[in-house]
Design brief:
The chain is built from 13 helices and two strands; from the N terminus they run ααααααααααββααα. The two termini are 26 Å apart. Strands 1-2 form a two-stranded antiparallel sheet. It folds into two domains: 268 residues, Ferritin; 42 residues. β1 and β2 form a beta hairpin. It has 327 residues and is mainly alpha-helical. Helix content is 66%, strand content 2%. The chain binds benzoyl coenzyme A (BYC). The site of benzoyl coenzyme A (BYC) has 29 residues, from α2, α6 and α9. This is Putative multicomponent oxygenase/reductase subunit for phenylacetic acid degradation. One of its GO terms (cellular component) is cytosol. InterPro entries: Aromatic_CoA_ox/epox (IPR052703), Ferritin-like (IPR012347), Ferritin-like_SF (IPR009078), PaaA (IPR011881), PaaA_PaaC (IPR007814).
């Protein structure tokens, strides 16, 4: 047994220097490493918000599972929504490595103490929305999340690698659905355009407020949690999406959208940031409905959690007595 003498324990300054060194070398912080309280709190905030988004994000598309237009579309949609549940679970596991439990985080989601992505507070009014969510929402998610594979916290970065692979499939299935509809009837083409008109601006808001109004970006980038600013990623998304819209044959609803030769990037209009703040503060079109649904599912599932906990406890007791008999 080793005894830790006060002299042997590294002091706060040495721990901070060691942490700063890992960050400066672009290496990873792992759960057992010392980390500043602010770093831990920022990670819990961002990863929990991300996990909640995946779980709440199952609702808008889940809305269409029973009304999918064919068995093939239903199988694809089921698989996608299940993937989202999986993403939520990897991310809750990552926050557990930081010393918070999934129960605690769920309570914070239900009480409104923690956020989830604004995008999931908009309704899904037609089947084209399934395609648009895949194309634009998962497309925005990929832009935002690929750099997070290189985030400085090990468990978060590793979870993001798998999530991003699945998000690519999600984006492709959305684009393929919209392409099929665009090659269909006039009514289908109109349905796609109407859906893109509703989701374009909320998709741009997913990247968060403009850099000048983003209180967390500078600190998160210095810690290597975020690798890009909100505005950089929004620009990347617009540049990636415009040519895809052209191939699809839809119009993006922004009269200011045009190629800027000098910048080598697209200029585009300003999202309605007042609307964004309203939605983030809980007053979007579907906030109350989304949280009420999640609360119902959590309460209805209480017996499953209790049964699983009782089963695990009983298995541990039986396992221990069996081990005793063998000895
Ligand atoms: N919605 O200082 P900022 C998915 C908050 S899941 C709501 O820039 P930060 C998918 C922000 O939290 C998509 N709130 O913050 C799932 C902060 O408030 P607090 C989810 C937002 O953290 C299913 C305040 O505004 N993706 O793709 O540096 C089906 C100031 O912002 C939003 C992630 O979570 C928003 N859009 O940057 C399909 C990715 N934006 O917490 C698809 C991981 C900002 O200080 N997260 N806020 O009270 C991130 O990359 C960053 O957290 C953000 C925001 C870029 C989102």
């Amino acid at each position: 047994m080793s005894t830790v003498t006060p002299e042997a324990a590294p002091d706060a300054e040495a721990l901070q220097a060691q942490f700063d060194d890992v960050i400066a070398r672009n290496e990873r912080i792992e759960p057992r490493d010392w980390m500043p309280d602010g770093y831990r709190a920022t990670l819990v905030r961002q990863i929990a918000q991300h996990a909640h988004s995946e779980i709440i994000g199952m609702q808008p598309e889940g809305n269409w599972i029973t009304r999918a237009p064919s068995l093939r579309r239903k199988a694809i949609l089921l698989a996608k929504v299940q993937d989202e549940a999986g993403h939520g679970l990897y991310l809750y596991s990552a926050t557990e490595t930081l010393g918070t439990s999934r129960d605690e985080l769920t309570e914070k989601l239900l009480s409104g103490a923690q956020k989830y992505s604004s995008i999931f507070n908009y309704p899904t009014l037609s089947y084209a929305d399934v395609g648009t969510i895949g194309w634009l929402v998962d497309g925005a998610a990929i832009c935002n999340q690929v750099p997070l594979c290189r985030t400085s916290y090990g468990p978060y970065g590793r979870a993001m690698i798998r999530i991003c692979k699945e998000e690519s499939f999600h984006q492709r299935q959305g684009y393929e659905l919209l392409m099929t509809m665009m090659q269909g009837t006039d009514a289908q083409r109109e349905m796609v355009q109407e859906s893109v008109d509703r989701f374009w601006w909320p998709a741009l808001m997913m990247f968060g407020p403009p850099d000048a109004d983003s209180p967390n970006t500078a600190r998160s980038m210095a810690w290597g949690i975020k690798r890009n600013t909100n505005d950089d990623l929004r620009q990347r998304f617009v540049d990636m999406t415009v040519p895809q819209a052209q191939v699809l044959g839809v119009t993006l609803p922004d009269p200011q959208l045009r190629w800027n030769e000098e910048r080598g990037a697209h200029d585009f209009g300003e999202p309605d940031w007042e609307e964004f703040m309203r939605v983030v503060k809980g007053n979007g079109p579907c906030n109350a409905q989304r949280v009420a649904h999640r609360r119902r599912a959590w309460e209805d599932g209480a017996w499953v959690r209790e049964a699983a906990t009782a089963y695990a406890a009983r298995s541990a007791v039986l396992g221990a007595s069996r081990e005793g008999e063998e000895r």
